[in-house]
Amino acid sequence: MHRTTRLIQSIRALFISMLFLLPACDDEPVPEADVQLQAFAESYCAKMFSCCTPTEVYATEAECVAQFVDRNTINPHLFQSYDNARLRTCLRKKWSEISGGCDQAMDFRLEECLNLIQGELKADELYCADSLDCPESQFCKSRGDYSECSPRAAAEASCDDAPCVRGLVCRPRTFPSVFQYCLAPLPLGETCTTAIQCGSQYDLTVTCIDGTCARLIPDGDSCVASECTSGYCHPDDHLCAPLTLRHFCENLRIYEKMTEESFTEAYSWR
C-alpha cells in the first residue's frame, strides 16, 4: 500500500513538473483548464501545509484543494471560458513564486494572470449575465427584462452609463468634479481619489497614495497598509518588507482574500 502511494505521488510530482516547470513548445497541446487548476491546487496546497499549519482556513490539505478548484471553476451557466494557454502561463508563473523554500520572497501581483477569461457571446448578443460574457469591446447592459452585450464608452465619452474601453479609466477631467469621462490614466504625481484612476488595473506597479498617483513603495520605505510593492507592510515598524511564503501561509486568511480570489474576479480589467 505504501509503495503504491509513493508511486502515485511520484507520478503526480512528475506531472506537475511537466505542466508548470518545463518550457512550452509551440506544438505542445495545452491542457484543459480543469486539469491545470487541479494540478496547481494540489501543488499549492501541499506547499502551504509544508510551510505552516493553515488549519484555521482549511482543516485538511484535501479541503484546500477542493476549495481552490471550486472558487476558480467558471460557473457553467455563464458564457465564459478560460484562455487555456494564458492560464498555463499564469499558473507557471505563480508556481515559480512558491516552488522554492518557505522563506523565499514571493509576488502575486502578476501581469501574466491578467485577462484569463474570454467571453463566448458575440457583439450585441442577448442574455448576458456578466460583462465577462461579452467581447472585450463590450459590456453586459441591463435593458430591464433582459440584458445584452453593448459597446463600451470610447475616449472622451461619458462613463456614467457604460464602462470605458480597454486602456482608459473613468475619471473627472479636473478635481473636484462630479462629471466623469473615459480618459487616459492619470500620470504619476497627479491628484487621485482611487487607484483605478491611476491605471492600476493596467499597470500593477502604480496606485493612489495619500491622494496622489505613485509607484508602489519598495522594501525598506515607510508604509501604512498594502501599498508596498511586495504587498506586505510590516505591522511593527511600518516598513515595506518582502512577503515570504511562510508569512503568507501563516496569514492565509488575510492574504487569500487579497490575492487568491477566483481568477474570474481578481484577474480581469473588465
Rg (C-alpha, Å)? 21 Å
Distance between the termini: 49 Å
How many helices? 7
The average pLDDT score comes to 85
Class based on secondary structure composition and strand pairing: alpha+beta
The largest sheet, given as strand count, sense and whether it forms a barrel, is: 2 strands, antiparallel
Q: Tally of extended strands?
A: 8
Q: What portion of residues belong to β-strands?
A: 5-15%
Which bin fits the share of residues in helices? 25-40%
Give the overall form.
flat
**Poorly predicted residue ranges:** 5-11
Q: Strands of the biggest beta sheet: in what spatial order?
A: 1-2
Oligomer status: single chain
Gist?
The protein has helices spanning 2-20, 33-51, 61-72, 84-98, 245-250, 252-259, 263-266; strands at 80-82, 117-119, 138-142, 147-151, 169-171, 181-183, 206-209, 212-215. By secondary structure, it is an alpha+beta fold. α2 (33-51) packs antiparallel against α3 and α2 (33-51) runs parallel beside α4.
Fold and architecture overview:
This protein is an alpha+beta fold and 270 residues long. Helix content is 31%, strand content 11%. The chain has seven helices and eight strands; from the N terminus they run αααβαβββββββααα. The strands form four sheets. It has a two-stranded antiparallel sheet with strand order 1-2. Strands 3-4 form a two-stranded antiparallel sheet. Strands 5-6 form a two-stranded antiparallel ribbon. Strand 7 (206-209) and strand 8 (212-215) form a beta hairpin. Helix 1 crosses helix 2 and helix 2 (33-51) packs antiparallel against helix 3. The longest helix is centred in the first third of the chain and has 19 residues, at 2-20. The model is unreliable at 5-11 (pLDDT under 50).
